Amino acid sequence: MPQLSRLFIRASLIYLFLGFTFGALILANKGIPFAPWLWALIPAHIEFVIIGWLTQLALGVAFWILPRFASSSPRGDEYWSWAAFILINLGILTYSLAPLVVLSWFQPLARALQTLGLMAFVLGNWQRIYPLKFPNLKDPI
Ligand code: HEM
Q: Is 27 close to ligand 1, i.e. is its CB under 6 Å away?
């Protein structure tokens, strides 16, 4: 498994842990109210499970497993996918800090970083989506 996939997947597992912990705390606080401020963790909970965990897990596995090229750079120009990892994680951190920062452009900035990150991933891996042909099989797989 390439280094970037390991990074994506390790980051996704950290966000899984944080996202579920925040969810469990919010849930516990609903049953037995002990810290009203826990409701402020809802945006971070949603961000961590959907982008931090699920999206990064999918990207990490995709980068590893999409068909490779028969060349010295089998995963194409990897800089695009590295840029995706950095931009997406900067976006998650920016979005999570937004409630603490009194700047109205912080959340849009976070979404812009993540959108650029996803676009970078698509650019870097688009050409890896091609059918594999084997001489003894009629249809490509
Ligand atoms: C893939 C996993 C998960 C996803 C995608 C997810 C997503 C979400 C979303 C979108 C909301 C906002 C719902 C709304 O505004 O109506 C939410 C709220 C919440 N989540 Fe999660 N969640 C996940 C896992 C968990 C887990 C494991 C827990 C608890 C252990 C949890 C506890 C909560 C609680 C307590 C709320 C607040 C519900 C309320 O408004 O009363 N979530 N979650």
A: yes
Tell the residue nearest (CA) to atom 28 of ligand 1: 23
Please compute, for residue 78, the number of CA atoms within 13 A of its CA located in the half-sphere on the CB side. 14
Q: Are 121 and 56 in contact (CB under 8 A)?
A: no
Query: Which of 25, 47, 49, when mutated, tests ligand 1's pocket best, judged by the most ligand atoms within 8 Å of its CB?
Result: 49
For residue 75 and ligand 1, the question of a CB distance below 6 A is answered with no
Alpha-carbon torsion angle 93, 96, 20, 22, nearest 10: 140
Residue 88 predicted with pLDDT over 90? yes
Residue 62 pLDDT level (bands cut at 50, 70, 90): very high
Domain residues for 59?
3-65+74-127
Report if residue 20 sits inside a domain: yes
Local confidence band at 138 (pLDDT 50, 70, 90 cut-offs): confident
The total of structural domains in the chain comes to 1
Ligand 1 atom nearest to CA at 27: 35
Q: What is the pLDDT of residues 1-38, one digit of tens each?
A: 999 999 999 999 999 999 999 999 999 999 999 999 99
